Amino acid sequence: MNTRYQIRELELTTVQQRVLAALTQGATINAAAEANGVHRTTIYRWARQYNAFQRAIERARQVHGETVHDELRGLSREAIDTLRELLRSPDSPASVRLRAAVSIIEATGSALTEPVSDALAADVQIQGAVAKMSDHDLDAAAEPAQLRPRATCATASQNSAPAESAA
To answer: Is the pLDDT of residue 79 over 60?
Structure first.
């Protein structure tokens, strides 16, 4: 075999095991190397030289990914409860309730097995556009018309006053 490093099997050293433990907990190669007093290129060299170490790195990353996925899945119940509270609370501003509703629609949209009707698709697009509006604009739009400020009489009369004619 004409490679710079001969690939071989080995028992993992204590430092390699500590590096792998750090990777399993989500550390980067740089962080794992620094924490264990080796340079990151040493870890890359070990991975090229030793099949067992390369496989162990892959397994550590897989375990970390599974751990993160499980934690996120556990938090999803709390996220759903929070969305439910925001959506149903009369104390939540209209903009917050709308964003909660849009989040729910977007999250479940990918799970729909039947095609979404054109009307629902248009409604989701409208809600998406409204979700981009500022909180102030949404709150103003949610106010009853009788509570909105009206134009003053002076403003109205200025806009409708005829131009003075030159005499």
So the answer is: yes
